[in-house]
Amino acid sequence: VSTETSTSETASGNGEGTMVDSLYDVDIFERSTAKIDPNEGARPETKEGTTSFRTMSFNIQMDLQKDENNVPSEAGLNRIEAVRQEILYYEPDFLGIQEDRDIWHNYLNLEGYKVIMDTGISGSVERCAIFYKEGIKLLKAGTMWLSDNGTANGTALTVADLLEEGGRYQMSEEHLAMLGITKDTTDDFLYAQQTTYVDKDGNTKTLDNSYYVYINGREMTYGVFDLNGQIVIYVNTHLQNRKQNAAYYNDALARLRNLERVKHFDKLQAVVDELKVQWPDALVHITGDFNDLPGTDIYNTACLDYGYQDAALVAPESYDFAGGSWN
After folding, report:
1. How far apart (Å, rounded) are the C-alpha atoms in residues 103 and 101?
2. Which of 43, 141, 177, 217 has its CA 20 to 30 A from that of 95?
3. Distance CA 155, CA 201 (A)
4. pTM of the model
5. Could you tell me the CA-to-CA distances from 290 to 164, 227, 293, 324 in Å, in that order?
6. pLDDT at 45
7. 3-state class of 216 per DSSP?
8. Strand pairing of 283-289 and 230-238?
9. Strands 130-133 and 94-98
């Protein structure tokens, strides 16, 4: 979770960052979660008319049990209700969710909230919707695909980006060779179904599970709000994943996905910059599933290149997740 105030200055940084190989060995499932007493109440009182607000980011998806008509089973409904209760317990003013497919929007009924989402997609495509409390004034809203062609069927990076000498997204010749990318490769190749991969020892292997693509389209949603005179630009997104699975233990693919997250954020920031032309004093608040940890390229892009503050460091109250989380 990152925030940017209208008075902050962007720190210098080249956006290159470093790839932390030890991340491959991290078992994220061993991390503990916050222990919160449900009797304490999660929402502190705030004075009416103030510009303080609470945001929440929640990746809600898991494989819900459902029938052929996309109707959830009892177990699926129990999961949806548990998520709903968790959200209402914290009572955020703004909520950004990720992996929110049709089944969630059909059954996740959040009383007292309005929603901003892409209504032009359906099925298993996530929307990265924003919920906001009724009574908060919405000035402008929109969604966009963080891809070079502006659609879901594309990637943010292009082959030209990867080949550009001295460019922000240049890949090494060794990594390009491992991925099979040359100057004659088309951009569609980056999004195409792959059936083989090169392991960390340089051996070409055939996938024995499901197909995958190198990188794929991701979406962002934004809303501009008037909160008692304070303009808030709230953005929610879900950046390229790292895909913790044996087929991805490949330095070249890891680097490619690393750079894709960076370009996702560059495209997101371009939208924010346009909005700040109209609302130069706006507070910018971003939530999302960033699929990475502090110290990596995407973290440095947000905090060094663009001057955002890490809410885990500046929030007046923070719960420890035993070394960080993957947002």
Report:
1. 6
2. 217
3. 27
4. 0.83
5. 25, 26, 8, 12
6. 62
7. coil
8. parallel
9. antiparallel
